[in-house]
Amino acid sequence: MKAKLFTLVIVLLVWGGFNNNSYAQLVEPEVIQLPEPKTPLSEGYHNSLSFDIMLNNFGFGIGANYNRVVGPLTQITFQTGITGIRDVSELTFQNFFTGQQIVPNKYKRAFGFPFLFGLKQRLFASKIDDNFRLFVGAAAGPAVAFVYPYVDDDDGNGFRTFRVDPRGFLYPTEGVNDFFSGWGEGDWEWGFNGEIKIGIDFGSSFASQTTVEFGYFFYYFEQGLQIMEPRRATGYNEQGNVSGSESFYEAQKYFGTPVIKVSFGGMW
Predict the structure, then answer these.
(1) Among 214, 190, 212, CA closest to 201
(2) Integer distance in angstroms from the first to the last C-alpha of the chain?
(3) What is the pLDDT of residue 108?
(4) Does residue 4 surpass a pLDDT of 80?
(5) Does the reported pTM lie above 0.90?
(6) How far is 177 from 226, CA to CA, in rounded Å?
(7) How far is the C-alpha of 8 from the C-alpha of 5, rounded, in Å?
């Protein structure tokens, strides 16, 4: 009798708990409405200006960009700056004793000045917090390059001239310009440039923000830039002088590189 009573109590408890759970499952929680994402227009901002620091395969670069808000999540952009330009064939070596850096077969230095007009579009605004604003962008426009001699090519033969001494060692008869030498012999070349990128605007306030971008940037010059030596020596005579030369590196037209950019600025 006691066993039957105990079994009945257990069944009633289980049944009551099942009914309570079933009832609880029928009551759905209220749907929490997410707040509308903040945008420059909703906060009263229409313009932005920032200072850029860039790192790419050409080295470091600096620049500035101005953006104009044209929609809740869309901005038109303009940016400019200065970057180095390197040939894909360049290899830099440093003298262990003097610390001097030498790039074999380098003929000229080049600096690029990009002018980029583009579009910036914020993504997933309703799904990502406003202090982590993901965006994509693309831009293109004209560019100008300043090219000046790396080798002080006094004889104009298209390469750094060496002689062979009586012991059979080569030594240069033409020097290498330092960073500030040779500007007076430089030329300006016009071309085209463009970029695609993805980035993040950090900060809950639009008035002051930090931006990190990852992208791909390129220059294109129709006439090409002769960064490396156009000719090279083919032999030396008994007096140790160059006896002949031949074509070597061609002028490079396309210069592309991945780029990381950090920007500091704000909106008004």
Answers:
(1) 212
(2) 85
(3) 96
(4) no
(5) no
(6) 16
(7) 5
